[in-house]
Amino acid sequence: MHETGGTETRKIVDCDVHPLIKSVDALSPYLSSRWRERFVPRSIGQSSSNGFVFARARDRYPHPNTTYRLDALPPNGGPAGSDPEFVLSDLIEPHGITTALLLPQEHYGVVRFSSAEAAAVFERANNEYLIDQWLAVDNRFALALTVSEHDPVAAAQSIRDLGRREGVVGVQLLINKTMLGSRLFDPIYAAAQDMGLAIVSHQNGSEGCYSFAQGPAGGAPRFYGERHSVLPQVGAANVVDMIMSGVFERFPELRVVMVEWGFSWLGALMSRADHLWMKNRSAAPHLKHAPSEYVVKHFKFATQPLDEASGSKEFEAMFGIPELNKMLVFSSDYPHYDTDAPDVILGKIPEPMKDAVYWQNALDAFGSKIFRN
């Protein structure tokens, strides 16, 4: 745990650590023979790539370098994030991480599947694999089961089947074309609320790239840098959609953690939504309270990627968003190329907010099960 300068230490919850499987063959024990034939290559001379590569379509906006840190490659082989023991020695132990929330990457490719049945089977197998092969390794790992909009009923059943397993604390819900306020997701929200699991929303790489995916305002970006700059628009739009569509009136105990969508836009968003609601409440017929009240009560926002303020006044303004101290959680995005080093980022958090950002807000979002020790 992180030193505070005295004899005490602070817990640290990292809300964004990405595991991968070394090979799609690793999912074989979790698949029926019919689905093994579908997913696991058996042709002579054909290699079986990790699940992320297997499921992922070619990027419309190729990354200019690599998506992962080269020093995060396990010494025993495999893609970055595929060896739980190396993640322990490379991230968790050096930085005193109390809990690392695992947000599986394989599913970021599975969202592109056209077959709802295939998507549900692959997602279920990957979730079961991570429960057996990661959560069993160390109590500092926690898992967000991952589902998509392909088959909300099957997703809800998977949540109910696996949601009580030790170390499972959330549900990573990946979006395609449907915004998160849609009643399509109600079976998933109901299961998550019943099981006491937070919803986690994370970019999946489809946004702004494909016709079936949500995109930023104005249309498809032309360049990688353009897309990367405007992606927070998608997160902001889904926050508003969940609130305005009455999700939290239907599911008053539901908690949502927005990861890798940024947070510096929150102040203007809440102010604008509140102003419009007060001027014309019929324009938001589902709401019983001001939009900002739903944001503060139901949402958390992860630090990564932390916006680089150009000066101290801009930095102070970013952390001066009303009630941000109740909403901000720490995330590193390990092992991606833009990993935010815990010691650097946590050092930038204003002292009065440190305990909240380090661990208290994560505890509020995920409950006591976030700490397995």
From TrEMBL:
Domain Amidohydrolase-related: 13-367
Keywords: Hydrolase, Lyase
Pfam families: Amidohydro_2
InterPro entries the UniProt entry points to: ACMSD, Amidohydro-rel, Metal_Hydrolase
GO biological process: secondary metabolic process
Gene Ontology MF term list: carboxy-lyase activity; hydrolase activity
Any one Gene Ontology cellular component term annotated for this protein: cytoplasm
Keyword Nucleotide-binding recorded: no
PANTHER family: 2-AMINO-3-CARBOXYLMUCONATE-6-SEMIALDEHYDE DECARBOXYLASE, ISO-OROTATE DECARBOXYLASE (EUROFUNG)
Name of the protein this chain belongs to: Amidohydrolase family protein
Annotated organism of origin: Chelatococcus asaccharovorans
